[in-house]
Design brief:
Blueprint lengths: L3 H15 L6 E4 L12 H5 L4 E7 L2 E6 L3 E6 L5 E4 L8 E6 L4 E5 L6 E6 L23 H8 L6 H5 L10 H10 L13 H20 L41 E5 L2 E5 L6
Antiparallel strand pairs: 1-6, 2-3, 3-4, 4-8, 5-7, 6-7, 9-10
Helix pairs in contact: 1-6, 5-6
């Protein structure tokens, strides 16, 4: 599933061609994806000018001068294609400017879009109650120390809780915990302040590196220009079960199940 860096990479790729442009044509090739397309989508977007693009957690945002924001989620296999040479039967939403065509392609249809009044974005159900952005000023040691206090659930699972930190996913939590030398099975309330002081910069570092690398291409994800992200070549633990730890010569990467998902870590250097 595309995670925060992949969505950020997508938004930046779209912004190069969309920002400030007027949408001259909008077409839906089916009535729904994972959810039905919002009523009036074509009418509201056709003729609108894109005033900016952004991201909240794992959602992309396309703002318009009509006070409406197109919110998109890429699901498990979604991506935007810019000026595709041919149509794809999985292109479900197509928007065009005078210069370019943008197709939201999603073979598995787990993605979805909504149209939300821009001034009400913070209250939109998927955003209401979200924690701070991991790349913003709100993610601090003090914040984590407060929200984790007394929590018995594993730190790995707590970091995946969008109410604690918005947008963190399985790949980057595993990688950040490794860099911070924290055992993912450890109770959140027992993680020391010193460890949290390692964790906050580790989260930012791993996300920023992945964004710079264009994200992590595992199966379906590709950037809007068709290029593949290559952060996966930097994975220290994710998907490396049985391989030697890059930090400790005597360590071997293990995989355990947590909350129905796989977690990879080094039991020797993550305590």
């Amino acid at each position: 599933m595309p995670e925060l860096p992949e969505v950020e990479t997508t938004v930046r790729g779209l912004a190069r061609f969309l920002e400030g442009k007027r949408l001259v044509r909008v077409r839906m090739n089916r009535p729904d994806m994972r959810r039905p397309f919002p009523p009036g989508l074509v009418q509201m977007l056709t003729g609108a000018r894109v005033t900016g693009l952004g991201r909240r957690a794992k959602f992309g945002l396309i703002h318009t001068d009509r006070g409406q924001t197109l919110v998109f989620h890429l699901g498990m296999s979604g991506r935007w294609r810019i000026d595709p040479a041919t149509d794809d039967r999985h292109d479900h939403l197509v928007i065009e400017t005078e210069e370019h065509r943008f197709a939201l392609c999603d073979p598995r249809r787990f993605g979805w879009v909504d149209l939300v009044p821009t001034e009400s974005l913070d209250a939109w159900p998927s955003f209401a109650g979200m924690g701070p952005e991991p790349l913003g000023d709100g993610l601090t040691v003090a914040h984590l120390h407060t929200v984790l206090k007394g929590r018995k659930q594993a730190i790995k699972l707590l970091l995946l809780d969008q109410r604690i930190v918005a947008g963190l996913g399985n790949i980057y939590v595993c990688e950040a915990l490794f860099r911070a030398r924290i055992d993912p099975r450890k109770a959140g309330g027992s993680v020391s302040r010193a460890a949290l002081e390692r964790l906050v910069p580790a989260i930012r570092e791993v996300l920023e590196q992945s964004i710079a690398d264009g994200g992590s291409t595992l199966r379906d994800y590709a950037r809007p220009d068709g290029e593949l992200g290559y952060f996966a070549t930097r994975f220290d633990v994710y998907g490396r079960e049985g391989e030697p730890c890059r930090r400790d010569d005597d360590g071997t990467i293990r995989r355990v199940a947590q909350g129905g998902r796989s977690t990879w870590f080094c039991p020797r250097c993550q305590r």
